Amino acid sequence: MDSSTPYTYFNRLACPVCGREFDLRALQTFCPDCTAPLLSFYDLPAARAALDRDRIRARERGMWRWHELLPVFSADGVISLGEGDTPVLSLPRLGGLLGMQGLYIKDESLNPTGSFKARGLAAAVSKARELGASRLIIPTAGNAGGALAAYASRAGLPALIAMPADTPTANVVESRMAGADVRLVQGLISDAGKLVQSMAASEGWFDVSTFKEPYRVEGKKVMGYEIAESFGWQLPDVIIYPTGGGTGLVGIWKALAELAALGWLETTRLPRMVAVQAAGCAPVVRAFETGAERCEFWQHARTVAYGLRVPKSFADRLILQTLRESGGAAVAVTDEELLEAQRALGTQEGMFVAPEGAATFAALQKLIAAGSARPEERVLLLNTGSGIKYIQ
């Protein structure tokens, strides 16, 4: 790095609803006035003048090669296990079955801890430690717990993880193996969230729940940088994303806006973002279809895709805004459909993907049948984790 270039161009932390700014040198949670997530902003004009996308490409691989566009103030603050730079693979056999020549998947199962959660928790733990947090707590459907446990261990910080009692065994074991205190809760992630909220308030744990701290989305957004880079600074026509908390969906869209402002894209056409949910827990789909600005809490949520069993995202406004700004869609698939898609990805392409990732292929078939995606378009699916972690 040029000695005249700052480690990061992070210069503002603000509520996207009311615009209120928050001290970026202190631990923050969310906007108390709007009950909305906080977003990080960067001095993009200065970054545009100083940075070269090809120099970033030439750096050592991993999420932190984009450090100027991430919120950690110095290299000493980075906690890393080698996350990022997962591959974009073509799916020629499944594409052929659908008459498509441009079907791709970004495989996040190759991250540390086996899922995309490694990206968000790498950023959140790095920033929390840098700002003085002494212990971390999270509610999780599974994979985020394992990621927090690993990065907290790496950072030398205690971690407490609350997860539903029926969470896959692999998530429980990996969290405890990394030294975390795991509490199993009867109910859903929303019930685990209630325990976390209580303990954070009464015992001083710092809560790194999805969108209740500002920086998990910054780690996830790097997927957007990598997608643009993988497509030669062009972009796919459609990105299909499994949506529970929605951090990745919002993050990718944020990243593409930042790349456009930096002048690094070779296109002005942005992809249509598609949120996929399980039919047994589809609050975003229902809100999108009814034109609502917020999601209603989904009662009696049920699905085998544990990461999609999120009755209401804290960032529902941002998710719906992303879908509508991009001209995208929200699609629900049944458990039977996503499990069949999981088998198809295994037998046709040799990939054992997470049920959430498989839901994207099930959704694509629905989009094509409805005419919402065309065979000649380039479509990117996101597999968020390894299917191995769901074996009970």
Please describe what this structure looks like.
With 392 residues, the protein is of the alpha/beta class. 38% of the residues lie in helices and 16% in strands. It contains 13 helices and 15 strands. It has helices at 44-50, 53-58, 92-97, 117-130, 143-155, 169-177, 189-203, 216-230, 247-262, 283-290, 316-325, 335-349, 355-370, and strands at 10-14, 21-22, 30-31, 36-37, 39-42, 88-90, 103-107, 136-139, 159-164, 181-185, 206-207, 238-242, 272-278, 329-333, 379-383. The strands form 4 sheets. It has a 6-stranded mixed sheet, with helices on both faces. A 4-stranded parallel sheet has the order 10-9-8-11, sandwiched between helices. The longest helix is centred in the middle third of the chain and has 16 residues, at 247-262. The chain is globular. 53% of the residues are buried. The mean pLDDT is 96.
Helix percent band: 25-40%
Question: Strands of the largest sheet, in order across it?
Answer: 6-7-15-12-13-14
How many distinct beta strands? 15
Number of helices: 13
The fraction of residues in strands falls at: 15-25%
Computed Rg:
19 Å
What is the SS-derived class?
alpha/beta
Distance between the termini: 46 Å
**Average pLDDT over all residues:** 96
User: What is the element string, with H for helices and E for strands?
Assistant: EEEEEHHEHEHEHEHEHEHEHEHHEHHE
Shape: globular
Return residue spans where pLDDT drops below 50 for at least 5 consecutive residues: none
| Major sheet summary line | 6 strands, mixed
